């Protein structure tokens, strides 16, 4: 029987890769994205390849009513909701002293409240069904210190805490919850800057974020398709956490063993980027969403 799934942020990056992987498995997927036209184009392409089905919905996850309508409408149409991937997000970073309340509010609204809106809509429905799986996309920045990304890291640590708490709460009631914490992933968001309607952030305006994050990821970014395969494998096995790739898992383990050491390592990396910037290279990386 095909599973019924919703993927937010489904028009590009990890969301698109998840949608493609689910359709290849024969599932029925709704790709929700703030860019409805892009989501429709992706859904049309995936639906044509099959064997599963894909549709699209224009949804801004900051709008709780819109998310609730998406979730309830999908469940009413298909009779249930098996999987919700709360994947939509954005990355706003830079020197903390340059960031305004507007930068913080946008990051909190999308990365944290967007996930919470999905949870508030889907969790009660899944309890009534007696089954379901919620998968929240966080980041390695939700497990490690990330200089130059205070708003982003704040939201991702919160998503990890929300996910693990909800997993423990829902386990005996048939609802599963997992959290995804990827390191550097090769997606279009690496090429985006601060949204145009927000104040400028001088410390990141001249940055080649892709080059910086590639360098900090050991010289190679992880593929979105590879991560999607990791995520679905984790869902199949009911993993609490999916941390990928291998380098990210190694850093996470080190963080659990010696937080002070990891803080020192990340501070040193930030220092190297600052020296590179002063020498005419790239500046300290922003807290870009590595999706």
Structure characterization notes:
The protein is α/β, with parallel strands linked by helices and 291 residues long. It has a single domain (4-202, 220-257), classed as Rossmann fold. It has ten helices and nine strands. The strands form two sheets. The chain has a seven-stranded parallel β-sheet with strand order 3-2-1-4-5-6-9, sandwiched between helices. Strand 5, helix 5 (150-170) and strand 6 form a beta-alpha-beta unit. The longest helix is centred in the middle third of the chain and has 29 residues, at 101-129. The model is unreliable at 281-291 (pLDDT under 50).
Briefly, what is this?
Pfam families: adh_short. With 291 residues, this protein is an alpha/beta fold. It is 51% helix and 15% strand.
Which terms would index this structure?
single chain, 291 residues, alpha/beta, Rossmann fold, 7-stranded parallel sheet, two-stranded parallel sheet, 10 helices, 51% helix, oxidoreductase, Sc_DH/Rdtase_CS, oxidoreductase activity, SDR_fam, NAD(P)-bd_dom_sf
Percent in helix: 40-55%
**Tally of domains:** 1
Task: Provide the CATH topology.
Answer: Rossmann fold
CATH class: Alpha Beta
Please state how the strands of the largest beta sheet are arranged side by side: 3-2-1-4-5-6-9
User: How far apart lie the N and C ends?
Assistant: 30 Å
Rg computed from alpha carbons, rounded to a whole number of angstroms? 19 Å
Considering the protein shown, what is the CATH homologous superfamily?
A: NAD(P)-binding Rossmann-like Domain
- Going by CATH, the architecture would be 3-Layer(aba) Sandwich
């Amino acid at each position: 029987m095909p599973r019924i799934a919703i993927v937010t942020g489904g028009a590009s990056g990890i969301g698109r890769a998840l949608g493609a992987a689910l359709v290849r498995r024969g599932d029925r997927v709704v790709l929700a994205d703030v860019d409805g036209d892009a989501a429709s184009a992706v859904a049309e392409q995936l639906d044509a390849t099959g064997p599963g089905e894909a549709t699209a919905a224009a949804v801004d996850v900051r709008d709780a009513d819109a998310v609730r309508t998406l979730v309830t409408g999908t469940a009413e149409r298909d009779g249930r909701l098996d999987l919700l991937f709360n994947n939509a997000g954005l990355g706003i970073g830079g020197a903390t002293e340059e960031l305004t309340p507007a930068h913080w509010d946008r990051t909190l609204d999308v990365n944290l409240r967007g996930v919470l809106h999905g949870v508030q809509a889907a969790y009660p429905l899944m309890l009534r069904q007696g089954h379901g799986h919620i998968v929240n996309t966080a980041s390695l920045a939700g497990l490690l210190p990330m200089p130059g990304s205070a708003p982003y890291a704040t939201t991702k640590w919160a998503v990890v805490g929300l996910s693990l708490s909800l997993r423990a709460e829902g386990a005996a009631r048939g609802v599963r919850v997992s959290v995804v914490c990827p390191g550097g992933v090769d997606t279009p968001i690496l090429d985006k800057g601060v949204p145009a309607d927000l104040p400028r952030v001088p410390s990141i305006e001249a940055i080649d974020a892709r080059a910086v994050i590639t360098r900090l990821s050991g010289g190679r970014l992880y593929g979105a398709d590879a991560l999607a395969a990791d995520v679905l494998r984790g869902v199949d096995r009911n993993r609490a956490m999916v941390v990928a790739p291998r380098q990210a898992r190694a850093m996470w383990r080190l963080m659990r063993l010696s937080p002070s050491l990891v803080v020192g390592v990340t501070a040193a990396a930030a220092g190297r980027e600052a020296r590179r910037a002063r020498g005419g290279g790239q500046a300290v990386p922003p807290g870009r969403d590595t999706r």
